[in-house]
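Handout, tutorial session.
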Amino acid sequence: MNRFRAIAVLALASALALAAWGPAPSAEAAGRWARPPKGRQAAPLPRLAEPLVLDGDLKEWSAAASVPVRNRSCLILEKEGHAWKGDADAGMEVLAAWNDAGVCLAAVVADNEILNTREDGSLWQQDCIELYLDGRAADRFLKWPYSPGAYQMFVRPPTAGREPALAVNTRDGTIEGLRIAGKTTKTGYVVEMLIPWTAVPAIEPKAGARIGLQFELDDYDSRDGEENQPRKLTCGAARNVWSDPRTFLAWTLVDEAPSGPRAPLSPTVAVDAAAVFTSEKAMPVAVDVGRSLAAKVGSIDLAVMDAGGRAVWQKTVKPKSARGPWSGSVGASTAWPTKGAADGYYAVGVTLHGADGGTLGTASRHVLLFRRTMDEVLARVKKVDLGAVVAADPLRAAGYLGAGATVETLKRSVRSLDRDAAAHAAWEVETRLGLLEGGAAAEDAGFLDLLRLGADPAAEVVVQYASPWSASVRFQCGAVPFAAADVTLLETADEVKDAFAPRADAVLESPSLPVTVGGMPGRFTPLVLDFELADRDCFDPASQVLLLMPARKVGSALRAGAISCARVDAVVVLADCPRPLRETVEAWAADARVPLVDLEAGLKQPRVLVAGDWRQGDGIPEETQKALKALEFYVVRPSAMAGELRVLAGNRLIRTACGSPQVAEQVVRLVAACKPVTAEAADALRAQLVRDVAPRLPEAEPPEGTHLLVGDVHMHTDYSDGRGSPAGLMLQAMHCRMDFAVLTDHNTLDGALEAQHLRGKARFAFPLVVGEEITASAWHMNAYPLRSLIPWDLSPYETVKAARAQGAAIQWNHPGFPGDDWQVAHMEAGLASTGTDAWEHVPFDYDAWKRDGTCPLLVGSSDTHNGTFPDGESTLLFATSPQGEDVAEAVRWGRAVAVEPTFAHLFYGPDAMLAPAWAALAEGKALRAASAARLKAALEKADLYALIRASPDKPVPPKKK
């Protein structure tokens, strides 16, 4: 390598150290699994040099940024049996620029079969381009959630019989003046689009302004049959773009794209390397350069750096011209010989040089090397004699189950190439095993230092991670969770700054008070407001106003006394509004500086408050009446949740809610300290909660011959729409000290049956119940235990009858969702006339129904989809055993209590069941002893290693009969 080239590689290494890994690694970021810090270097968005002509030709796009979205590293969804067959099957190059009229976008798409028969809201199910744009002001730019100025758009491709179309997700409002044109080609199609600046009034269209963009390609072929969205690719393999603007790419408007050693070339240069690489062979690395930059490239330098900023490999390659639909682009491919490299994160960096040797800029991609860690972890698990551990210390054995559940997460994450989830799971399982083997969490454990809280098994503190940046902490007494906290890792200064900011898309903001806990700043929200599906006829125009999100077709009634909680963009006062309400609303609008407008103008706003009887239609145009009548209508009421305490501990937001303010504050202090919680401290929390929250009830004995049991009656595996494996979910349930668990995937028993099969194979004796969430468009119901599947297309009555025929209990899941006439018709009457045995979750009308003696039987559940059980909501039963038939019998006979650790009362149900539940928690010792005994019975012959080895790393289709 000549001296010039060596200097260039060193410059690249320096740039990567700064751009990819941030400053010199702190103790927290020093580990090989530590996720690279968030950092967003804006890409330049050039001005279009020539007038835009929307005709499907690309002559005027030479100055645009060109973004390749066509290699395997972009693939984020590839459903089983629906493999992506390369860039000719589905690939895209996006051209992005701007002019005085708006944001200019074009796409060259390769698609071997162009099919889309869907309408605007469902275009994503088949061949489609999804465009994402964030034009919000600085305080909301690229922040969660979507709010006015952030858009998801769908492009229906041109076909022989249809012109292309561009539609906006109705959630995000409308955009006037969208323009699109396009045509089919021999290899796919081309589209050109203009998004006018009027869509993003917060942006002043001039050099230096910022905008967010992201691009997704959905592919569908006739071979995919009824499967919706079988494959999709995004720029940079961004996930969950539809729900999270933080995944967008940041761009800066420039007059001309810059070049030089520090010029950012991502995403116009795509680095194609496996997100998770598991082979011992050399790692293939490819570079894909879009057409607008390709002609300038003379050579390409590649370098790989480890987490410590050291270059471990470097090479110079010559670019080659691309063929087919990508003619005009260039690329290069080589391989990184990974022999001797340890598992962990690496950065693959690229520097482009021009024909004269000058540097054009740099790009990079992070990858995870993962070849030996799984074997090392499994070797440690194999040494665990679970029977011996549980005989000596059942609670320590439960810790090993948590480690086993994490191994299951690791397996699924590696297979799905979810780099950050895989790295976090690897780090987590190593830390958990280290603590169980008698060590301590390392000083540089990062966010995993929360595991120290449960280092003493006798304290019964359970820590779970839903993601690399979110965790939950549960305080248990035996199987009963009595307190919980959520912890969110804030990874940027902006996130810390916005820790107490309300949701940008919310129409309500519950009033909160500033507090200080242990010197840490916080907010306390004494009254949490929530929404309940209702009939619009219950609206009272004399005392209520309508909170309306027109684009989402959702309206909610709010009592006038709580109008100060409203966060709206405009206020409408109808002519028939009663005078007292009119004066209240107008005074509030003036004080809040919210404009008063007419109804037609108000319905064009993202959020509007309407005072008066909007149902009557007097003086309201017919089209507007139709829109108002089509509303999904809710009533805003106080939630059953206790006051919420949020505290900022450094870069962590800790949230808890509890009927006892003293317990809530102490929970925050313990979690913020990140030190092992002692059994004495945990027991003091329990005793304090009982003193502060337990109601005065007549003494009552539990039903004769029954035992107090706690479990979860609603959870999902990846056999439907969950993330956890069946074995992993079973292990996590035991880790959370549950006495039983009911697996209830949507319209399938396969996951639950797989869990039962694996349980028997590995000699676990945990009571795992086969259930189903019968999921129709209008309602969801859980039935358990089941021997055979209940069809989803039966009527509610027929569904209940089918469950009864199998001796199953059946519950109405999350009443009010999904919104439908059937739900509305039954919400106010509880379970009357539904035929179901139980109502899931605590209803708004709990106190009133209790007073009236009409409260339905309540069950609590997590409805988990991510494989964890964060807040402890569960079901307490008095049953003869934890087996499925006895669980169902206890529910059918009303011997159940909903457990809600974050609500005001903890236990919810009939007094005859509440009294023995509170008595058991007050005494405490018997709960712990019973939990320990059940763990022993479940694990005395169990083989954790055998379970993990037998558990497949992906869902297994059922055998055809």
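The second record follows below. Compare its token runs with those of the first.
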Amino acid sequence: MTRQTELSSRPNASVASRDVLRSWSLVAGCAVAIVGLSVMIGWFLDVESLTQIGPGLVVMKFNTAFCLALLGAGVAAGAHTRVALVASLTVGAVGTVTLVQYVTGWSVGIDEALYPDSVADTTHPGRMAVVTAVCLSLGVVALLAIRLGRDRLATGSALLLMTLGWLGCLGYLFGVRSLYDVGDYSTMAAHTAAAIVIIGLGLLASTPGGVLPWIVRGDDPGATMLRRILPIALVVVPVVAQLTLYGQHAGWYQTEVGLAFMVVVASSGVSVVAMHMARVVNRAHAARALANEELLELNSSLEARIEERTADLVTSEAWARVLAWSAPVGIYHTDIDGQATYVNDRWCEIYGISVDEGLADGWESGVHAEDRPWVLAEWATAIAGGTEFDCEFRVVRPTGEVSWVHSHSARVHDVDGAGAGYVGTTSDVTARRQAELSLRATEELFRITFGSSPIGMALVDANGLVVRANRALGELTQRPLDELLTMRLQSILHPDNVGNDERRASAAGPDQRILRADGSVCWASIRYARITGDGAGESAFTIVQFVDTTDRRESEDRLAHMANHDSLTGLMNRRSLEAALEKHVVHCNRYGPAGAVLILDLDNFKRINDSRGHSVGDQVIVTTARLLSERLRESDFLARLGGDEFAVLLTAGDWAAARVVAQSLVEDIRAFGATIAGEQIALSASIGVAVFDDVDRSSVEMLANADFAMYDAKSLGRDRWAEYASKQNDERRSKARLTWINRIEADIDNDAFVVHAQPIVDLDTGETVQLELLIRMFGDRGDLVPPDSFLYIAERYGLSNRMDAWVLGQALDLLETTSGDTDPVTLAVNLSGTSIGDDQLLATLERRVGAGGFAAERLVLQVAEPAATSNIAAARALAGRFRDLGCRLTFGSLGGDIGSVCYLEHLPFDFIRLDGELVTDCIENSSNRVIIGSLVDLARSLGKETIAEQVSSERVRQFLRQLGVDHGQGFELGLPVPLEEAVHAFRLRPDGPETMSTLAPAL
């Protein structure tokens, strides 16, 4: 084993020896305590075998057993415990009183007190022997000495105690009565003597600096020798002597032989131990010599290291000076009184002075006058308390420039531990202080803006908890601010849309529902903005803005409802019916035909309107709609097509089911009638039925077939229903269509069509601003054919674009002819859906407008709403090309189909036409008034003008003016007349639009 290994192993050995000694003291104390308790039990229970080791031996007294039990408990518990202190004081008191009784001859009652059954003679069961009392007193002294740290006194007392007890044990062993009997002072019992020896051994083991720990733990030759000789001297020699005496008493040999045997055995034992100890001493001497050599080598190595460290220290000191001089922060050193002894270049730059000035004047002279008192007070406190100095204050340079510095210093000590001054750093923190001031100003601005913002705002942490909210958010959610600060963002949102809470920085989320405190719901547009910091990680806070969109959402919902529902009855409108019909056609094509389409028209409804007024007519329509809704199934689809015309889509059933429904509706309307203002009005209806059959039919064909059947019902006398007979009606319609197609093509080729014009009037001034061109066809008898009779056929079979080109040609000719007028006429021409993508028509228009024969703004092209919305891309391209030419555009007609307004911002139109059905009942119908007002406001916001159709009375005209409508058209303002008459009247215009009305024949 090397010396390093040997040295490293000693602490473990020391720990092990301490554990052994503690175990010895514990075992010894417990053994003695058990002996004492056993004897005390023997006295109490009168068991003589417990009071003595064996028959014929001296009995241990009760007081002795009591004291041994206490002393053993104190040794077992440890000399530094309260148990040991109480035990030592009690045992000391008993032993002292006992010794006093022996010396003075007095009896103070200690024996009777501990054991009251004493006899009247000189024998006291409770009184211990005097030598026992002395031994116990020595044990008490040893315990107290251990507690007070007096190891020598403890060791001496324990050794003397062991000697007295050992002598008693030898007296019993060899039969020498004088070693355990003190005559009149009683006799020490054998087990008392053994217990005292054990107590002494425990006391020696409990003494940290005593002889026994030295013997057990010591590794020098003396301790090693004693570890081997003491057992022989104390145990082997007496045992050998006793064996020798036993052999002599037994007659095995003579006395001389026994003595010789004892000498030989004892001498041999001592000689063996002595020889072994000599070898141990030699090894110890050799180990010490080796240790000395290693120590010399270690000293040499340490000296070399010291020289090396000294050189490194010199180099380090030089580097320290270089680093301190070139450091980017100011470095200074002061003595214990605060006088500067060193400053580097950066420190001088911060203060704006030289090194000599810094060392002479000190750093205090540069401190701002307002900061100097409290800074010097902080410095004085740091010096007095030996603590660190850490302050930020202003410094005034000789140039008058003021800057902020941060100074931090700590006390340093010399090798003796005394204070050697302060070493510190000084940094220019002006930029940071300015940034902090700017940040505080920004925070204040944010606080004011946040609190006074008219929109709801919340500051949310990474866990979604609202840490700040403004008053607007409290008003929006109807919650106090302190309640909002205990909620999470998800708790504010409606449970159905919490999943949409995506924190998209600087991105507006969709409108979401907000759950108010009373359980009601409002709508808000929510925007999230993360607060970015200096670090690269994601910010822990997000600003959430809530813009109340409840009114807008409700308006949109109302508009969406109006877009798909009839404003008067609340039923679905034509648009919704066509969409449902398209879906049902697809379903029939895939799964087989089923269901039917019914067209219902009230009989003689015009007479009701004319005789009782439109308000009564509206009530009749509403009453009929309610009746139909109650009679039909939930799966059926009921819509109002306009006027007194309704449509029903039966989604299931065959011919028989459709006939039953039609007959039932006819009978219900006939039986129900209508009660208006207490007056009973008889009603009847004509219904046309078209059933889905095996023939593939489109939604348009189904409506047309049902319409044909409805007219058949009217021609048969009304108040009945009629069904569309597929084979018969198909042949009849095909023949009629072929006739109409041939007539339309012939009239186009022969220029047989005629053009009428109807004025469009400025409602404020009464002047005609435009003439709308209307195509007309002559019948077989020379009368005019209604446009509805042939326009549908023309659009159906692709002739509408040729008709549009013909009308546009007539308009261009007239514009070129009247271009020289002082007040040239402005013409409005209608274009169908097929003409929007007709490149030839557009090329003709570009060519003639580009020729410059007239001002392009005099031509207004009107595109119907279905044509524009069905092909937005083509309509936008068309509008762009017209705008490039200088022409103007009109979008219409808007009314029951409010959903089309969303296309206005995508199509650059100049005029918006308001549907005649919307205008006719605008005075009596509040819903129509709201819709017209909304469309007027929308048009003005987009920079467009409005044109109202079917202005039927002066009262309607004045009401439209109040609503802000720009222009109007209708029989009240001017009837359609041939184009030449209209132009002639336009040129005259002496009395405004009334002149045109007088010239127009009644149609």
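Points raised in discussion: Residues 1-13, 118-122, 500-508, 991-1003 have pLDDT under 50 and may be disordered.
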